[in-house]
Amino acid sequence: MHLVSQYRLFAVPSALLKTIVLSTAVISTVILSGCASKPQINNVTRYATAPDYYTVRSGDTLSGIAARYGLGYVSVAEMNDIASPYRIYVGQSLRLKDSGSRRSTTTQAVTQAAPIQRQTVQLPTNPAKPTAPVAANIPIAPVSSSKVSALRWVKPSNGSVLQNFNLANNIKGIRYAGNVGDAIYAAADGQVVYAADGLKEYGNLILIKHVNGYISAYAHNSKMNVKSGENVTAGQKIAEMGASGTNRTMLEFQVRLDGKPIDPIQVLPIN
After folding, report:
1. How many CA atoms lie within 13 Å of 198's alpha carbon, on the beta-carbon side?
2. First vs last C-alpha separation in the chain
3. Domains (range + CATH), the chain
4. How many helices (H) and strands (E) would you count in the chain?
5. At residue 174, what are phi and psi to the nearest 5 degrees?
């Protein structure tokens, strides 16, 4: 009897132990179930939202742009009609979404203000010495009266005429006699496009551009009173007579129409 009572005393703790173990197992199961029900956070790569169009910047590549927005570079190339090796350019606009309507993907050049264009004026060529005298004068086509009437022409010098226009003798204008320092006048309104001594045979040379394709030339000056770019009026003093580039004091006056020499008599007043 005493032994049975003693056994029961030890039996109670064993039952309690089983209860604790069972409770622990239930709690663990609940905890594990709760953990299993929690959503798993996956390491998903996030891409930037692709715009409809993307402007290429320095350092960009087609594959790099496509990867940035989670796109295939081949599909981007097809949308923009870019063939292998898939070259792109800074400033180029790339379509990243196939929206149906296409926009040009070619590089647009930045529009710049047009530079000031300098007009190229054909300077008189160096006079060539004829190898043999030619008896007959070369006929000169008459100048249209409508072109002449658009300008008021005056004589460039008050000196006497030394030699008249004669292409056969390589005289491409009228040569006036005079003294060093005599006034030289602009034959018509226009703009000075050349005033320098770049052609040795013509010395100090002035070229004036007029309307309707006319250019007048004034050679061998001792002094030039105008500069390139200045506007002048008919009868305005532009230089002084001299002998630069030649062996006597004179003015060689030429008129060119559309780049070809014409006889100044066709435009100058008779008196």
Report:
1. 9
2. 169
3. 53-95 (3.10.350.10), 145-266 (2.70.70.10)
4. 4, 12
5. -110, 135
In the chain, which ranges are E strands?
A: 53-55, 93-95, 161-163, 174-177, 183-185, 190-196, 204-209, 214-224, 231-232, 237-241, 250-257, 260-262
Q: How confident is the model over 73-83, as pLDDT tens digits?
A: 888 888 888 88
> Which residue, 130, 165, 139, is CA-closest to 253?
165
What φ, ψ does residue 37 adopt, rounded to 5°? Answer: -85, -10
Q: What is the CA radius of gyration of the chain?
A: 48
pLDDT of amino acid 92: 82
Strands 231-232 and 214-224: unpaired
Give pLDDT tens digits for 7-53.
Answer: 444 444 555 556 665 665 555 554 444 444 444 445 456 677 888 88
Q: What is the pLDDT of residues 73-132, one digit of tens each?
A: 888 888 888 888 888 877 787 888 876 544 444 444 444 445 545 555 556 555 544 444
Alpha carbons 61 and 84: distance in angstroms, whole number: 13
- Neighbouring CB atoms inside 10 A of 192's CB total 19
The one-letter code for the residue type at 148 is V
pTM tops 0.70, yes or no: no
CB 174 within 8 A of CB 265: yes
